[in-house]
Structures
1.
Amino acid sequence: MEREMTNWIDNIWPKFLDAGLSIVWAVILLIIGIKVINVARKLLKSALERSNIDTGVVQFLDAFVKFAAYAVLILALLGHFGVQTTSFITILGSAGVAIGLSLQGSLSNFAGGILILILKPFVVGDYVSACGCEGTVAVISLFYTTLHTVDNRNVVLPNGSLSNSNITNYSANEIRRVDMSVDVGYGSDLKKAREVIMDILNQDERILKDPAPIVAVDNLGDSGVNVLIRPWVKCEDYWAVKWSVLEAVHNRLNAEQIDIPFPQMTVHLDQNS
């Protein structure tokens, strides 16, 4: 009996020892893994915060990294104890594919929102043109961006389409050029017309002196000479300057007896036909 007990202890003791060592190594691996995950999360958050990335994006990326890191750690611990993790990975992969296909549009908008918030092609308050719409950016969320148009409408754009489209940000720079034109009749004094227009621009304090405004002949049209008017202004003064300058040009040219022609066509009749 004593010999049987001794043999049993001799047989079982190595197994207990191996199991104990496995548990110890698993605990050590768990502690090291948690420490590494926490350090990595802190470094990631610090880097993102220094980049002035939106708080919502920072929190999402932190949660995603935490979830992914702990999933890898758990799989590593299961593999340490001899559990076959291939089936778990296969199931998770299949579930991910199924969820991705069912939420394809939403995931596209979500990914687009992340890119917009990280790359910042525009921020709230910028005046932009994209997807056939233009307006002031009112809200940037993870799924949609809202534009407030000049006629007081809210246009909601999906971030997936927005991130893949051409975006024109009119507020990216502090100043902007106002492009206008006016036709002057062929019988009018072109030099005087240019001087009148330049005088209007020089008297407007909102128009910048540097870069200097341009008044130049652009084209000889069917009805008159097309004169370009290109002053530079601050972005916030763009529309006010454009409207007031066009009105002033019309009034001053009329006052100076400079013809602004209607669209017209000269027809020559053949008297012999």
2.
Amino acid sequence: MADTSVIITTYNNPAWLEKVLWSYTCQTRKDFEILIADDGSNDETRELIEAMRSQVPFPIRHVWQEDDGFRKCRILNQAIMQATGDYLVFTDGDCIARSDFVETHLRHRQPGAYLSGDYVRLPMATSNAISKNDILSGRCFDLDYLIANAYPPKKISQRLKAKGLKASFLDTFSFVKANWYGNNASGWKKDLIAINGFDERMAYGGSDWEFGDRLNRSGIRRIRVRYRAIVLHLEHSRGYADPELIKKNKAIWDEAVQKKTVWTDFGISRDTKA
């Protein structure tokens, strides 16, 4: 039984998910399991996972629910409960992890805290160019490689440039607010369950931050690893971004802030907490 679980969300993008899974074969830490939190993908994703199981050094579990619209929060809650690890690392099925990604999250974890990272967003041309060999060799994180494969030089992120002490310095003194970013975050399973997980009423737009705010109100501190835990975000369409649903999400979030809510009645357990 692994004491660390990596939870990767996905929906009908097996080509990107395969690239992501290859990146976890290169991790400097090997003692983890992976759970694919699948919001209703078709058989292509299931077939990919079955094929990958024999090619990777870690266990993969496929946590799937029927496709009924954007229900990421619901499948995340299911994955949290099925995870065997005491410590959970969260990312998405379009985020290639640098080889020290898991190690970085584990090195900086602390009792009573969660870790807040972010991603480096790639254009579509660069996303398509990255091959299995580019991932296994780590060259997809090299600045020269990215620029040679259509990444605009002027947009090269400090997150790719900063190493060692500089990365630690930037994380300590950055003005960017640390919050829960589902593409790059981690926390203790017991702390996530203590606030009843994600609010399943929320669709795309703001659910991560609402979750992070409730963790913070429960007394869980934020630790920034924005410049130390690095993932490359592969580009994709966002047909699920609905302005009306985003507006609804904001109303839920605003109400939680106003009432100083910690426990959501619409999460893992539907029993109202006294």
3.
Amino acid sequence: MTDAATAPTLETESALPDKRQVAASFSRAASSYDAVADLQRTVGNTLIERLPCSTAPARWLDLGCGTGYFSRSLASRFPAGKGVALDIAEGMLRHAQPLGGASHFVAGDAECLPLRDASVDLIFSSLALQWCEDFSAVVGEAKRVLRPGGVFAFSSLCSGTLQELRDSWQAVDGFAHVNRFRPLSAYQQHCAASGLRLERLDVEPEVLHFAELRQLTSELKALGAHNLNPGRPGGLTGRARIRALIDAYERFRTPSGLPATYQVVYGVLCKELT
């Protein structure tokens, strides 16, 4: 069975999860998300530090805001600005809105933003865009809604993420139990064709460690990020297969525990002044 996450073509994007399933899964996870979101906070804080020093938005957009953690961070960092928090998962928005941060909380799709042309100075999106099937539409919308001189800063995931778990399942039954993500080459191609000036685009691995495999799988479920692939096997996973999965994953154990590697893409693009 070919691993769709490693194929170096844009066609892999057609195998990404359906956004309706993504929205429903993350809505269900709203109340448990922050308790297990250490990686998300680390990556988002890194992205904030990569914003250009001159960034001082009058209006910003937190694209894929989730529980609003970074909406509140952006509000604190840019107190003179007004913010819009947008997410496709309405359950996340219901959780985020009472906590404040943004001036407006909007249900919407990154591939078709419900915003006027040239209406924001900063688009901040951390670990959300990996769920978008059409990344070219995402960057096209970013260009449309940014004002001249505006910044589009994002973090996302690319192929190779959770490779230890993928390889372990491959050894057990060959099914795609792990979410697929587009390759770095797709991000490079879409950013290059976006009409925005590319300031940086790179990948940094983040490795988490767990004492037991069930800690990892429980965390993925609490985040709403468990397997959403089309064509995933249905029904319950039997005890024998779980035992085989545990044994297969043990091959990766280090003195720090069982590793789970996330391949994090960081991108910063700017809209030219006219």
